Amino acid sequence: MYTFHVLEKMNRLGGWLFYQRGIIPVPFFVTLFFMSYRPYRNDFFGWTLGPFFIMLGMFLRCWGIKHIGKHSRTRKRQCRKIVMSGPYALTRNPLYLGNLSITIGFTVMSELLWMLLIVIPFFLLYYTFIVFWEERILKETYPEEAERYFALVPRWWSMKGIRRKFADAFSERGDTPLREVIYRERRTWQFFVVMTILLLLKDALNNYHYPVWIPFILN
């Protein structure tokens, strides 16, 4: 009985986080711009490795949307569906892994490497609650197909049978036209441009000894 109540609370929390997923990460990215506490000053490291993780995340998101299409940004419970092609042959949650990679990239670009110790566990836990809620819906809607998919594809990542999985992932091109993929990801691209400009501004101000800061955060 106790386990049932815990699972129900996790499910409700996951559903709430799902509907707030566009808002919850905002304070974190605002902090990346304003905070300058114990930065790791290395422009080559920050502006090569950071963009690499961002582009990797953008690629994962675009590749996933190429296969999942209009269901990528839906907020309707009944629109959940099982996709088993493209990156969904490698992981059940390529969009969330893409988001995590983008977040890591911007954290590295902000030079606040110590925040990775907070960012990675927080976002993994955050997305785990959402995934728990989504998987329960899939089990209720497509019981047999969902169980088979969960058995074949890991929730996050696994090296088991990786060659076969990569072969399956690239065997289909996806039904969503590239133009539609770009259109559906327009907010992500806009966010990328705005955040990059802000971090470039922060870097310039810090280099000229005008640190960006919030009054209650020590520089």
Fold and architecture overview:
This protein is mainly α and 219 residues long. The protein has one domain. It is 65% helix and 0% strand. The chain is built from 9 helices and no strands. Helix 1 (2-19) crosses helix 5, helix 2 (26-34) runs parallel beside helix 9 and helix 5 packs antiparallel against helix 6 (143-152). The chain starts with a helix and ends in a 12-residue tail after the last helix.
The overall pLDDT, averaged over residues, is 83
Order of helices and strands: HHHHHHHHH
Strand content: under 5%
Cα distance spanning the termini: 50 Å
Uncertain ranges: 213-219
Radius of gyration: 19 Å
Number of strands: 0
User: How can the largest sheet be summarized?
Assistant: none
The helix-and-strand class reads: mainly alpha
Count of distinct structural domains: 1
SS field, number of helical segments: 9
What keyword list fits this structure?
globular; mainly alpha; disordered C terminus; 219 residues
Topology of this structure?
Elements: H1 2-19, H2 26-34, H3 43-68, H4 94-109, H5 116-141, H6 143-152, H7 162-169, H8 178-184, H9 186-207
Helix pairs in contact: 1-5, 2-9, 3-4, 4-5, 5-6
What can be said about this structure in brief?
With 219 residues, the protein is mainly α.
